[in-house]
Design brief:
5 strands, Nucleotidyltransferase, domain 5, five-stranded mixed sheet
Length: 314
């Protein structure tokens, strides 16, 4: 058997008998790894004799290797728990890969899923079902220019907007209007109010214009809500050279980026907190939108980059 192993070894690696001697004089760790790799093809004992290694030395290496693996895994596990709980329990295993990479810890999605969902039983908070769309009375409706083409390469060429409701601690409703720049999915303006009306839509748009100063010809896409079809809003858009585009009534897919934003807005933020007053709400919304969403939260559209990172990588 020893002779057979010797022949196969030389044929397998096309080497003379002197090669093991040269390997033996190098890094012992390389030899251990070599044995690990080919131990099923050749007998472990034979390889150890070939490299003139004591069995105890090799088995101690295996023991230390497992200890190192456990130590590394423990570090990853603790980091996963820290990221998960410090970000409101909204981080799933796919995002976890990105957050760990920011800390120079690199694991696959499969490993992240195994550690989070199977071993730690940590799951991202799921989304709630959106209420049924309610049609409103329209004054002036514009055609759908985008037609679900949301791939925009330049900043401040196409914006989209919408409303959502926020239930306060006392049960009363407040409303939010946010505007996204489709190029990097950046939230460029957000505003809250007790009323879901044209004034709130104009307030958010005014904030976005003041911040970005886009060229005339900007496209603003929305649904056919009465706030966006009102004469006051239409005149405000015309005054600032904005071309309006509107989704088909009752078709959320026509404004999918805003739908996705508000799903995240609700599940990652609104459903996790109670707001006692307008001041608390405004402060919290601004932190979520301008800090978390734009600067920290990875976005799949940007290949895992935040909107801020994607914009500055242009």
């Amino acid at each position: 058997m020893t002779r057979e192993c010797h022949v196969r070894f030389c044929e397998r690696f096309e080497v003379k008998i002197l090669l093991p001697t040269r390997l033996r004089q190098g890094n012992r760790l390389v030899v251990y790894r070599f044995i690990d790799k080919y131990k099923t093809e050749f007998e472990v004992r034979w390889l150890l004799r070939k490299f003139e290694l004591y069995p105890n030395a090799y088995y101690n290496y295996l023991k230390n290797k497992k200890a190192e693996y456990r130590k590394t895994k423990e570090k990853v596990i603790e980091t996963i728990k820290s990221v998960y709980y410090n970000n409101g329990r909204i981080i799933g295993h796919r995002w976890m890969v990105i957050f760990l990479a920011r800390k120079n810890i690199y694991i696959s999605k499969t490993t992240a899923h195994k550690y989070m969902n199977k071993e730690l039983n940590l799951h991202a908070i799921t989304l709630r079902k959106k209420p049924k769309y309610v049609h409103g009375e329209k004054n002036k409706v514009f055609p759908n220019i985008l037609k679900q083409n949301f791939n925009v390469t330049e900043n401040n060429k196409v914006w989209c907007t919408d409303f959502t409701y926020i239930r306060m601690a006392n049960g009363k409703m407040h409303y939010n209007c946010t505007i996204l720049d489709l190029s990097k999915r950046e939230a460029i303006a957000t505003a809250n109010s007790k009323w879901i009306n044209t004034d709130l839509a104009i307030q958010a748009l005014s904030m976005a214009l003041e911040r970005e100063h886009p060229d005339r010809g900007l496209i603003l896409h929305s649904d056919q809500g009465v706030q966006f079809t009102s004469w006051a809003f239409v005149e405000y858009c015309e005054k600032h050279g904005i071309t309006q585009s509107m989704s088909k009534a009752g078709c959320p897919y026509d404004n999918a980026p805003m739908e996705r934003f508000y799903k995240s807005f609700k599940s990652e933020f609104i459903y996790l907190h109670k707001f006692e007053d307008e001041k608390q709400l405004d402060s919290a919304v601004n932190r979520y939108v301008y800090a978390w969403y734009n600067h920290i939260r990875p976005h799949s559209y940007n290949g895992g980059l935040t909107p801020f990172e994607a914009r500055n990588n242009n």
